[in-house]
Structure formats: C-alpha cells, structure tokens
Design goal:
- Monomer.
- GO terms for molecular function: ATP binding; kinase activity.
- This is Maltokinase.
- By secondary structure, this protein is of the alpha+beta class.
- The protein has three domains: 91 residues; 106 residues, 2-Layer Sandwich (Phosphorylase Kinase, domain 1); 206 residues, Aminoglycoside phosphotransferase (APH), C-terminal lobe (Aminoglycoside 3'-phosphotransferase, Chain: A, domain 2, Alpha-Beta Complex), CATH 3.90.1200.
- Bound molecules: adenosine-5'-diphosphate and ligand LMANGFYV.
- The ligand O=P(O)(O)O[C@H]1O[C@H](CO)[C@@H](O[C@H]2O[C@H](CO)[C@@H](O)[C@H](O)[C@H]2O)[C@H](O)[C@H]1O binds next to helix 9 and helix 11.
C-alpha cells in the first residue's frame, strides 16, 4: 500500500462527508493528478474503497501540498509523505484557503485538466481570483463560499452520470423558477473504466443574508418553550406563516419540475414496488438499529397499505431529501437547495420518477425533528412533549395549506402513501443518526412509535 493510501485509511473515516461509517475496509487504492502546480500545489485524488461486505465506493479528495508544516492549518493536516529524501505535508485542500482559487479559474476558462472537465453555464459572473471559505455546517459534501458571490459544492462520493443537483438546477433555471439559486457551472471527471463521467462539483450563485429553515424553525420552538403556558400561535416567534410560504415554494418547484422534466402516471405495479422497497429498507435498517425491530410489524402494515392503494399519483422528478436544513429564507421568500436526493442512495435511483409526496413527507418529518430536538437532552417532561407536538402539528398543517393553495391539490389528506413515506423517511433517519449523531437517534425512533401506530 502506498504512503498516501495509508494516510487516507486513517483520515477519511473521520471526515463528516464519509458515507461508509460503520463498514470495515477490505482494500483501498487511489489515483491522482495535479490540478494546479502553483504554491501550494493542488492535487486531486480518487480514492477507491472496497469494504468487507463487497460494496465499493469512490471518494474525491483534493490535497494541497506544502514543504513545511503550516501551524494555522493544523485542523486541515492529513499527513506527511516522504519523497526522494524530502518530506512534504499534505492538507485538506478545501480548508486551505490559498489552494481554493484554481477551481473558479478553471471554471471561468472552461478548461480540461487531465481527466477533469470544467463547464461554465454561460449565465452570471464567475468570481475568479477570489479565495473560497469552507462552509462549516454539517454536510454530506463540502462547499466553499467565494466572497458572498458564489458557492462551490464538491460532491465527495463519485458515481458515473450527471448529478441530479446539476441536472435539476439547470432545468428549473430554464423554467425561470424563483425559488432556486442560479447555476453558474459544473465540473466532471472521466470514469477510468469508460463509464459516463462523474459529476465532481457544482457552482451556484450565493444567496446572501439568508437564514436556513432549520435555524429559524428551531428558534421558534425555543421561543415557545421559553413562554410558560402560551400556545404556538400566541408567542412572538410563530413560524406558521413561513411554513405556509414554504409549502407554496415547494409546490411551485414541483409544478415546474413536472413541466420541464419527464412525468408518468403511477401504475399499480409502482405502488407494489414502493411498498416492497420500503420493507427491504426496513430490514436493512434493523441490522444497523436493532431498536427498530419493535416497530417492524406496525411499519409493515403501513407499507402493505400502499400496495393496495388506488391513489392517483403522477410520478415526476422530486427533490428527494427535502428538509428544513435545505431551504433558505431570504428577505423575499424561500430558496430550495440541494436537489441531489438522499446521499446514501445510488445515483440511478435518485433520478427515478417518484411521488412528490416524498418531499412533502420529508418536510413533515422535519417539523417533527425541529419540535423534538430540544427534548433530547432534557429529562422527560410530558408538558413539553405535548407542546412540541402542538408546534409540529401547527406547522405541518400550515405547510400543507400553502402547498395546497399554490398547486390546487391537497398533499396531506388521508393518504396511505404519505403515511408510509413519512415512516420510510424516519427509518432512513434512524440509520443516518445512528451513524452520524447517535445522541439524536431518539428523535426519529420516538416518531416511529406514532407512525407505526403504537402511540
Ligand atoms: N446558493 C447558496 N447560497 C447560500 N448558501 C448556500 C447555497 N447553497 C448552499 N448553501 C449553504 O450550504 C449548506 C449546505 O449546502 P447543501 O447543498 O445542502 O450541501 P449538502 O449536499 O452537503 O447537504 C446549506 O445548508 C446552506 O446553508
Ligand atoms: O443535508 P444532507 O443532504 O446532508 O442530509 C442528511 O443530513 C441531514 C442532517 O444534516 C439529515 O436531516 C435530518 O436532520 C435534520 C436536522 O439536522 C432535519 O431537519 C431533517 O428533517 C432530518 O431528516 C438528512 O436526513 C440526511 O440525508
């Protein structure tokens, strides 16, 4: 094994963006090239990991190289490598500000470097020459903000094919949708085995002076808890009007996606397939989170009800992982981000036509999350639990009303599919939390008691 792959074996599992947590590594190889030979030198590596369960994944890791250790970059240090008698020091290039300019310079020029191809969208200015600052929120990918003008998102896990984030943003821009940020360009890398190129990165206009929905919603919940006996509609930080606008923004995005991307009426087999897939996902999730087993019977009934449904659903492209952390509130309204779907799903399945209720369910789950997350670190308090539920119910209803007014169809009626999609999302969240934030596992687990019909 090369010195570099040894470093990756140590360093990658500790990175927030690494999706293979909890899996044992069987083998690792890497292939790299130089993207920029300036100071510092910038190299890009595709790291191919094979796990003992046979699954293979490829991650993208850009490194910056220095002749001496840089104290100010201590938290970005990956390791030292000896070459021809000298030691060079490798850093996480996304945290090394001096190594961030080449991405935009190449995008502005539309260059190709080795296997990597940079494509400007031809709309809006690319602020080349500026350094980028890493976005510090918890992320599946890694983003750099360039001078509050543009945001560059590096997709860490590579798969052949155009990333839906680039594809959908491009389509919604053509539809002139007001609830998205403009696409400024994207980057692809050739596949070594001749498959379609993988999308490496996306550049978008940065939305300044905005707050994300999670921050706003949880501030509203905090206000409610601070106010002794008042109800959600009586305290200053009521979020319902914003939830309603968010419902309308979601409906607008769905309507445009259905207009400019393919659609298809759902046939009976689709409901059967969705029901089976949910059950399979539950089986896999129980392996990771054994506590899910106590809800399994109830959940299987909820999923079985989907197979027999006669709902009229038009399948279309959807967001796929819509939650309060994916929406930004500006002075004028909501912007929806990150159309790449659930990061753990294979790319092909993230591009499949689906029910828009998948996104409605994601957002309904998120209201539940926002309401409950403060309870996790508190001793049990039935009064607060009641208020959390009240807050969630109020905002869920407002979101549905906003969606319904804007699209002329109520997404939240008594739908077996919606209930099953909510349960399926909560099962996904249990696995996500067990792997990334075990202290939050209780949030989706407690919701599952309700969704599986035990509460
Ligand atoms: N166009 C944008 N303008 C302003 N902030 C953005 C923009 N795009 C993303 N962000 C910020 O970056 C965070 C992560 O972006 P996101 O696309 O959701 O990445 P990930 O796929 O890693 O979750 C968002 O929660 C938001 O705070
Ligand atoms: O934003 P990502 O694409 O990285 O999505 C993943 O991480 C999310 C957490 O950051 C996770 O969302 C869950 O926690 C949110 C609060 O942090 C909450 O608003 C969501 O409702 C809940 O699902 C998401 O599931 C995961 O895919």
């Amino acid at each position: 094994m090369s010195a570099l792959t040894e470093l990756f074996r140590e360093w990658i599992p500790q990175q927030r963006w690494f999706g293979g947590k909890g899996r044992e590594w069987a083998d690792v190889t890497e292939e790299g090239f130089f993207l920029d030979r300036g100071n510092p030198v910038l190299s890009v590596h595709r790291v191919h990991i094979e796990y003992t369960d046979g699954v293979r994944e490829t991650y993208l890791v850009p490194l910056s190289w220095r002749d001496q250790q840089a104290d100010e970059l201590e938290s970005a240090f990956v390791g030292a490598v000896a070459s021809e008698g000298n030691e060079t020091f490798a850093y996480d290039a996304m945290r090394d500000r001096e190594a961030t300019a080449p991405w935009l310079i190449h995008l502005a020029q539309g260059s190709s470097v080795g296997p990597m191809h940079f494509s400007p969208a031809g709309e809006g200015d690319i602020p080349e020459g500026l350094p980028g600052d890493i976005v510090s929120t918890e992320q599946s990918n890694t983003s750099l903000v360039y001078g509050q003008e543009a945001i560059f998102k590096l997709f860490r896990r590579l798969e052949p094919g155009l990333n839906p984030d680039v594809e959908v943003h491009g389509a919604l821009r053509r539809a002139d949708n007001p609830h998205i940020a403009s696409l400024l360009g994207h980057v692809e890398i050739d596949d070594p085995s001749g498959a379609e190129p993988a999308t490496v990165a996306m550049l978008q206009t940065f939305v300044p002076n905005a707050s994300d929905g999670w921050r706003l919603a949880t501030a509203s919940v905090r206000d409610l808890y601070a106010e002794g006996d008042l109800h959600a509609d009586e305290v200053g930080g009521d979020f319902a009007a914003d939830s309603e606008r968010l419902g309308a923004a979601t409906a607008s995005v769905h309507a445009d996606m259905a207009e400019v991307l393919p659609t298809e009426a759902a046939a009976a087999e689709w409901f059967t397939t969705v029901s089976r897939q949910m059950s399979e996902r539950l089986d896999a999730a129980i392996e990771v989170v054994p506590q899910l087993a106590e809800h399994a019977d109830g959940l299987r009934e909820v999923y079985a009800a989907v197979a027999g449904t006669e709902e009229r659903v038009v399948r279309q492209r959807v967001h796929g992982d819509l939650h309060l952390g994916q929406v930004l509130r500006t002075a004028t309204g909501w912007i929806i981000l990150d159309f790449e779907g659930e990061p753990a799903r294979p790319l092909a399945s993230r591009r499949e036509l689906d029910s828009p209720l998948r996104d409605v369910a994601g957002m309904l789950r998120s209201f539940d999350y926002a309401a409950r997350h403060l309870l996790v670190e508190q001793p049990e308090d039935p009064q607060r639990e009641y208020r959390a539920q009240e807050w969630a119910a109020r905002n869920r209803a407002a979101f549905c009303a906003g969606y319904s007014h804007a699209r002329g169809l109520d997404p939240c009626g008594d739908s077996p599919l919606l209930r099953a999609l909510e349960a399926d999302k909560a099962v996904y969240e249990c696995v996500y939390e067990a792997r990334n934030r075990p202290h939050w596992l209780m949030i989706p687990l407690q919701s599952l008691a309700r969704l599986a019909g035990r509460d």
